[in-house]
Predict the structure of Oxidoreductase.
Amino acid sequence: MNPRSLPSVHTPPRWEPATLARCHDLGSDVRLFEVRPDSGATAPYTPGSHLPLQLEFDGHPQTRHYSLLEEAGDAGVYRFAVKRLVHSRGGSEHLWQLAPGDKLTIAGPANHFPLSFANPEYLLIAGGIGITPLYGMALALHRAGKRLRLIYVSRDSAREHFATALSALGAALEVYPDSASAAPAIQRAVAALDPAGEAYICGPAGLRRHVRALWEAEARPPWALRYETFANGGERPEETFEVSVRNLGISFEVPPHRSLLESLIDHDIEALYDCQRGECGLCAVDVVSHEGSIDHRDVYFSARQHAADDKLCTCVSRIAGHGRVVIDTRRQGIRD
Ligand SMILES: Cc1cc2nc3c(=O)[nH]c(=O)nc-3n(C[C@H](O)[C@H](O)[C@H](O)COP(=O)(O)OP(=O)(O)OC[C@H]3O[C@@H](n4cnc5c(N)ncnc54)[C@H](O)[C@@H]3O)c2cc1C
Ligand code: FES
């Protein structure tokens, strides 16, 4: 069975050639890239935007997205920071092999995480490399004179770089080395946020779940909590698990380097999906039974729905403990 790359249901991006102009390390595993479109013109973009890149690795074209850092040094370049992930399908590793002058394929900036600017107060919470979309937002809010608090939780090698680059925020920036030390500050910040305030989060699944639980406990409106997910890993490492699709009578293994969604498509099973980041819920299927624990990596379902273990988002969630799962795909796309 040949693994396939998944197309998006959105309008295909308009790819264009570009050149890596410069790159340098912000830390031992985070590198800054400056990419110049060969047309010579960059498109304008708003805080929270990202740049789609088409990379050739693993035998076929794959799309990866990188949040654009504000305040490009030179006009005419897009700047983004990439964390090198060793246990991944290889997109970040591929970028780390590039040298100035190498060719790239990019599309114009897109923004799925727009900043409203309309509210009296903003709480931004970044975990690790999740600082990248919030970096430009924090500087833009600061310049606009908005009330703002940025809680940055990171052990990353680039932490000092970003903390220094954001020093204009003064006391509005709080930096913590890990979630345990940040937890009391996050709890206080959620409780103290203006009732009309908004929170923007980008970081690992555990951080997002923690903030969401606090948000729900404070009975704050769900629409005022905004996420960007980087399709991050879950609580457990990727392992092989077995899946049986009850309504089709088909069983197969999902290897560590393929998602359940990719494996369904590899086996010619029609599957609905959109974001492929655990945000939209379109890929969700019913779980009939399972052995081993479900590592829910989506942000679409609530904590209560995760605990029920009766649905999972096939694009990101997995079974841990070399387990197995029986699913039913007939209700795909039906929202409860
Ligand atoms: C809008 C947006 C903005 C982004 N901005 C940045 C940025 O500024 N900087 C940055 O470094 N990254 C950013 N990313 C993430 C980036 O696009 C890539 O996902 C990242 O570089 C990893 O790519 P990869 O191919 O190396 O890893 P991938 O293989 O895509 O792995 C990414 C994560 O998915 C998990 N994973 C891997 N395989 C599977 C599988 N089979 N099933 C389930 N989970 C799996 C891994 O544990 C890993 O944590 C952004 C992503 C999005 C969507
Ligand atoms: S495709 Fe959007 S949650 Fe899976």
The chain has a mean pLDDT of 90. Residues 47 and 137 are 5 Å apart (CA to CA). The helical segments are 91-96, 131-143, 159-165, 179-192, 205-217, 260-266, 303-308. The longest strand covers residues 16-27.
